[in-house]
Amino acid sequence: MKRLLERREFVLSALAGLGACTRQPRETILPWGARAEAEAPDRPLYFATATPLGGFGLGVLVKTLAGRPVKVEGNPEHPASLGATDAFAQSWLWSLYDPARAQTITENGRPRTWAHFTEWLGLALREQRACQGEGLRILTQTVTSPTLAWQIAELLEAFPAARWHQYEPLCRDPGRQAVRAAFGRDVDLIYRFDRAECVVSLDADFLARGAAAVRYARDFMSKRPRLLVIETMPSPTGSKADERRTASPREIEGFSLALAAEMGIVPATQREDGAARWARELERHRGASIVLAGDEQPAQVHLAALAINHRLGNLGRAVEITEPVEALPELELASLSELARDIDAGRVEMLVMLGGDPVRDAPADLDFAARLARVRLRVHTSHYLNDTSRLAVWHVPEAHPFETWSDIRAFDGTATIMQPLIAPLWEGKSFHELLAAMRGRPDASGYELLREHWRGRAYSLFLRAGRSLAAEEDFERFWRRSLHDGFVAGSAAERLSIEPRRDLARLLAPPKPAAPLEVSFQPDATVWDGRFAGNAWLEELPKPMTKLAWENAAYLSRATASRLGLASGDVVEFRLDGRAVHAPVLVVPGHADGAVTLTLGYGRHGGGFDAGRIRTSAGFFAAEGLEVVRTARKHALASTQEHHRMEGRPLLEGGRRVESRTTSEEYAWGMVIDPEACTGCNACVAACVAENNIPPVGRDQLMRGREMHWLRIDLYAEGPEDAPRFVHLPVMCVHCENAPCEPVCPTGATVHSAEGLNEMIYNRCVGSRYCANNCPYKVRRFNFYQYADQTTPVRRMLYNPGVTVRTRGVIEKCTWCVQRISAARIAAAKEGRRIRDGEVVTACQGACPTGAIVFGDLNDPASRVRRLLAGRPSAALLERLGTRPRTRYLVSEPRHG
Amino acid sequence: MKFRASVVACALALLAGGCRREMYDQPRLEPMERFEFFADRRSLRPQPPGTVARGRLLEDRHLYTGYSEQAKQPVELFPTSEEALERTLARLAGPPLAESFPFAITRRHFARGRERFEIFCAPCHGLAGYGDGMVVRRGFRRPPSYHIERLRQAPVGHFFDVISRGIGAMDDFADRIPPEDRWAIVAWLRALQLSQWARLPEIPAGIPPARAPTPEIPPVRLQRDPPAELAQVQAEQRARLGSYGWIDPEKKILHIPVERAVELLLEAGLPVRASVAGKAGER
Amino acid sequence: MPQILPPSANLAVRLALVGALGAGPALLWLFSSLGGSSWVTRAGEAPVQPVPFSHKLHVGGLGLDCRHCHWWVETGAVAGMPSAKTCMHCHAQVFSDAAPLEPVRSAFDGDRSIEWVRVADLPDFVSFDHSIHVRKGFACVTCHGRVDLMPLTEQPVAMTMRWCLDCHRNPERYAWPVEQVFRMDWQPEGDPVALGRRLVREYGLRRPTDCSFCHR
Amino acid sequence: MAKGALAMPDAARRYWWAAFGIASVLVLVLAGSLAVLLWRGLGIWGINAPVGWGFAIINFVWWIGIAHAGTLISAILLLLRQNWRSGVHRLAETMTVVAIGCAALFPLLHMGRPWLFFWLLPYPNSMGTWPQFHSPLVWDFFAILTYGFVSLLFWYLSLLPDLAVLRDQARSRRGRIAWCLAALGWRGSARQWETHRMACWLLAGLATPLVVSVHSVVSFDFAVSLVPGWHSTIFPPYFVAGAIFSGLALLIVLVVPLRALVGLGERITESHLDAMAKVLLAAGLVVTYGYAAELFFAGYGGSPYERYALANRLSGPYAPAGWALVALNVVAIQALWFGAARRRPWRLFTVALAVSAGMWLERFLIVVVSLHRDYLPAAWGIYRPTFWDWATLAGAAGWFAWLMLLLVRFLPVMPVAAASPQREPAAGSDDTARAVHPGTRPYGLAGVFTTAGQLVEAVRRARVEGYRRLDAFSPAPVEGLPAVLGAPRVRLSPAMFAGGLAGAFGGLLLQFWSNVIDLPLAVGGKAAASWQAFVPVTFECAVLGAALGALAAMAAATGLPEPHHPVFAIPGFERASRDRFFLLIETADERFDSLRTRDFLERSGAQEVHEVPG
């Protein structure tokens, strides 16, 4: 109704028209009351914290304005970030200000208060205390948080018979099984791509997936070792391979064993040409090579990789072995199964679930929903009301990572103490507060709990660092320093120099024969395991290798599709072990034959289908015997790019070194993009969306070709369909010196600045869209509807106050983050100096894990852009049109001789 | 009739009132804009207590608190609760106040200190620091003059501390004056003190006879011509700051132009802590 | 055949024709003059404030510097508004029980905001940064007028784009020495044009008319 | 009750009502879709990221093309003294005006924020901004504005004597007043006829280059751009030919049924149709030549994008539209080589209908098919028109039909002056002569003649008698009458020239002042003072100025508008627009003498002599 009223007002005034005569309504200013604050509301503050993914943290700096978080940047000093982020980190902002978040504590759906809950909790636990907590179970996702682990340990001390289970649908069980078998204990492996000359990936998408991807991508691109990839579904890592093979999951297993055989680790069963070649390449780089297996690969493949690394002497060099980072490493699938067994046995009376959605994402054969119903006291806490929340008796909204105190460890063990950036917007509680309530301290704040833990822990750390810790004051220093820096110095997991057991080879069983149609379950590139489903910033990101958005599809190769008589968009029924799911198929160039890839996480918010319905404990990551039943239905898939072929058109012609001439103006902005370094990971797109108030348009509008992203990553698949060469090309406004969009604008709403920017003045735009037609790069976007949410109050906090939120009917496009240029220009002018190189970092540049984007002043002879242009051949997009873009793309020089 | 009225109304709306306001009022939050989402309707949100922003590590105790490095007791810089405040206040008596500046004072600092002093301090303390500012003349409690023996002897850390935390009727100015500026003000205070209590090796000729050591303030009354009065008061205070005159001819103490005092201080040098290198520019 | 229309119809029809031809331009003129009119821009209109704060008293009478209350003006884009705490610094003692100050006291006691009405308001799609302007010699009074003479605060000039452009194109007409920008009553000595030209050189003032300087 | 000049048979009236009903429904559809458009935004259409322009621009170009044919027929054929023009020119002019009304809707509606359309006008404002005169859209805006004004003027001017007829035949008082105002006081005086002829002639001369310029400017919207398939030097002439082609086709589509329904067979004969068909064929061949040239340039030129764009029209996702275009625009017209197709109305109608549709498709190919696949394959897309696209298209057609039907019904579709078969005088119009007030000096004496020859003879004799203050009124221009009246020659061209010159200078000055001096904007790496961009608007301003000059001079020469004039009081003067000829001798004449003059008039063969009240 409110929307309707606003709409009516909009239209009435639209009819009344005639904007020049607008009378200003009076606005009000609300300064502080009884307190004073030193910070001006337009002055950004940055706070170091971390964003979680699968239990691991990525160190970030969150920019706040007037006490409101508005942007996430990487933390340059954090080992997992090195200043960059992934798309997930950016998108936590969307969920922070999401009105769909769970807002109040509920008991069977009725609103309650924290006091009600803790009172109930006290009574429930009193019962449990009598039996040592025999009926108490705690189910969490993967935990690396030292404080949480400490709290759980304390709880288990008080309730010795209680049990703690961990489960995530995308756990690392196979890898864990492998290291346990090989080392007889839990360890973590860390890969040093900066030390590698040759990398073999056995379906490991290390450049774009997982908690270490940002760091790995940076290390990899700084060194650019030779990359050999075998995989089922094309991945960003595969798209960067020097040599890429496709194989079904079974074939990968066979290939890894063949590779081990070529190295002489196991006796050869059959010769594999490719394996022999790859083995020779690896041999050439002993000690400086890496073989790594994807998290979804079976333990056999991990073991083979480990054996090869061991044989090549890579362990301890390019592959480091460390103490495990997780608080309690365990086989999560087994842990969940055990919980299920306990429930069946009637041993579970009270189940406290911290996060996650096991009802939806537990293996289908566990039928967790039915089992959960058998538990009498069910407590769940999560950000959103999900399937598990609806089945729980009590639901406590989980505080957002930006609202609460917590801690988390990165892939290498480095701990970050997460600071809140804003007080909880609703009634969110952190896990720490919930656990404290279980220990009878319902009022303990996260801050106190964290400090309690770290006060104790600091001693050991300091001792390890060889410093004495005498006074309370030193803890304060340690604490403040850790908060300030965003990580706890010296907290990285300890490097181990241990050897795997000698008879490692004997663990390697001969490969199973290939199955007719295999299925591989993978995380989704944008919603992960479903935890980000509904996050419109992520949902709208085109998936790197398919450009689908808002949904998933069953991916298969052209050959497999034609064998099954399928075409893209056909809806089929997949049957596996008596379970079935309907899904549209999508033919993906470069997909392995004989396999179907299903990604998890969809089917919850309307878009896509839930692959988890046919995922069982037995076929957790891969299974065979998939049956495909065609249906008559067709499904139009939402994709931002319909055409992946170059049509014989040269993408970047020529390529020459450019000596920039200094212009008469103070600055001449320019950008250099290295497509070779781009993995298509979307971090830049997400950062651009966050920085520039770019509204998501939703699946329907996206299907009509109306996505608003200022920056897109074009994906081309050239060459043969089964073994294409992939090119990721980030394209945003290239700021032509002879911009075709400018002279056609009737009102002068897009003009050129003296510093070389193609400027867009939204409030002068009448929306003729001529500029968009005339842009050969098609980077201009039009607000066909009122896409930006102007009415939901909490969403107003999401907008970057430095950028105008566009209304319906105007064109917009990449501005090279002109608001950042302006801020830097003002800062420099106040100090009476020029802007320094690196002072203006565009949002995309700042987020890019591989440093593929460089922005700077072409008038500054020492600037990175200018040196890059002078030192490496580059080309402009569609250079022959004579538009003279200020963005140039580096053209590859032949690598490796 | 009704119809005609609505036609007129529509025409008027067309001409003016109904004009489009696209993008004039942004959904994004403008600084200090009213924002109904929060109960206090402020779009300004407080920083959660205990958090540390980048560049706000404030490890340098001398620079940021005015207490010397030797102090053993930790002081919470931003007390988050009543209790913490009490703790902090209790510790105030203990730790020794800094006797020196955290960085070397240059001419630039005196100028900056003067400017800041005249913006924030002079309304009460007066341009010359006698506690005879305009606000005091309108009924605010009179602050002590800087030119009393106790304050001449007070360590520089004391002044810094008072600016940072307030004292008596005086509020704190920590929000409005960043630490470097506070130190600059302290330096300026030293110049003021010297200018009003100077012993010179050579006394220039023609020094006028002594005036009252501390100016009297007339009782509060209704103003007749405030700007004129303001101009007159300021002129008097500036005269004191800009001239030679006897304070105590017997002890050979005079007031000297403040510029001269600055020169003298620059010559002699204000005390700087031993480990001055490096840390000053932490922000 | 009788006459259909009286003789006066000739004039009426002619006028109507001329009027029809001229209606378009007239309408445009109306809009163009309305857009910059003080009725639309509210220039010269002192809004009713929750507290009848007088700049005349505080600036003209007490000599408070602008920055005493608007202390972000040198560092931030916005000049800032003082919190109730700042007001109460003095008014805890001075006029401590005056009725008009009741909103200030209750705001301070209850940690609420005094909801001041914005006097100088640009459309939200305009970015304006106070700090760079005062840093480059553009005085408070140039835009906000002699607030020291205003019992109730008003915005003296219509802040239209044309008005902004005038200064951006001709900074020499408006620049002051940087030391004087917070003064209310400063007058240039000697030739103001020569001074302006000198300041433009000295401060390296550009003529910033790139659209993105204000619109982004 | 004025019924227009057409006596409509009952059957025709039924058809009219049926057509009007359908058109009214479509107008409601248009109103509805426009309301939805304003309410929800441009998103209701099928346009998207690569295809920023869709049906709106297609429709615009189509309608404006149709408008051009109207002007062409009435103006160019007038200049070429083509006699067959007379049967259709009114219809063509009406079609022009209505088609402009349709065309002008679309540029407005296709804007994201149509309420800001006036930002395309140069006017001083508080922002200090001006239109950006390098933009073809601004040229277009000026061209359409000028074209609309000149067309309206041209149409109205030629309608003026007929409006007087309607006034004189009107029966109700309201109708009389309305038509009297509309006719602006047309009296059919010799001087008015002479001025009228001259003005029509000159405006035709003005309209001809205007038509060429307007469709050239419309083609610039495409040709000036960078889009493959748009960026072409052949576009201006090719668009002008296309405009003639589509407009003539639609005119034929209108004429054929109208002719059958209202029995205009003797006025619009088969030879008229034959002539139109020949021109249609000629225009079609020029258009075909344009297609061929486009293909040749694309194939011969080196740009892979250009080549692809052309190939894509015939082989891409929109190939059916491409081939349909060939069939409708190229193949169908070949039938017109044969007289049997040209002279058979309904066959011709079919071909013309095909061409109308084909020309719409041509614009579809140019606009949509060029845009949907341009440079970067990754940015390619597909355009799917939505319900609202079709609704707007149909609604606009309905709007056109609605206006045409009304105008055809209530205004003469053919010049009455030319048609004027003798008809019975309207009843009850003779008896209302008012008594002359004693004491007021009469305005003059008027003699009534039944033939033009008598009038000319009477005038000649009056001149011989020495009368100088004479005026003669006739239902149609009378050959030689101005000469015998001895009236000074009417000269409109100096005023037009002056107006044109002022317009050109004014326009040029405006553009230079606003875009070079006051608000220099850097666009596309061009110098602010790149004068070439100012040529189109300068030209349009010149035409507008000239038209205004002509209007002013005409008003001065004829004294119009003058809805009250003493001669209207002459009893029976309403027949001056039908079948009577009047000679007026004013009392102001030196030789005027009430008795002698009356005697002279009677002697000269006047049937009746009336005193004209003062």
Structure description:
- The complex is a heterotetramer of chains A (897), B (283), C (216) and D (614).
- Chain A has 897 residues and is α/β, with parallel strands linked by helices.
- Chain A has 25 helices and 37 strands.
- In chain A, strand 3 (56-65) and strand 4 (68-74) form a beta hairpin.
- In chain A, 63% of the residues are buried.
- Chain B has 283 residues and is mostly helical.
- Chain B has helices spanning 2-17, 61-65, 82-92, 107-125, 134-137, 149-153, 156-165, 179-195, 226-242, 258-268; strands at residues 245-248, 253-255.
- In chain B, helix 4 (107-125) packs across helix 8 and helix 7 crosses helix 8.
- Chain B is globular.
- In chain B, 41% of the residues lie in helices and 2% in strands.
- The model of chain B is unreliable at 10-19 and 277-283 (pLDDT under 50).
- Chain D has 614 residues and is mainly α.
- The two termini of chain D are 30 Å apart.
- The chains are: A alpha/beta (897), B mainly alpha (283), C mainly alpha (216), D mainly alpha (614).
- Strand 1 of chain A pairs antiparallel with strand 1 of chain C.
| Radius of gyration computed on alpha carbons of chain B | 26 Å
Distance between the termini of chain C: 70 Å
Q: What's the N-to-C terminus distance of chain B? A: 70 Å
Number of strands of chain B: 2
Biggest sheet architecture of chain B: 2 strands, antiparallel
Task: Indicate the overall shape of chain C.
Answer: extended
Output mean pLDDT of chain B.
81
Broad structural category of chain B? mainly alpha
Q: How do the strands line up in the largest sheet of chain B? A: 1-2
Low-confidence stretches of chain B: 10-19, 277-283
From the spread of the alpha carbons, the general shape of chain B counts as globular
Strand content bin of chain B: under 5%
Sketch the major β-sheet of chain C: none
Question: Mean pLDDT of chain C, rounded to whole units?
Answer: 90
* Total of helices of chain B: 10
Oligomeric state of shown chains: heterotetramer
Q: Largest interface, by Cβ-Cβ below 8 angstroms: which chains and how many residues each?
A: A-D, 74 and 65 residues
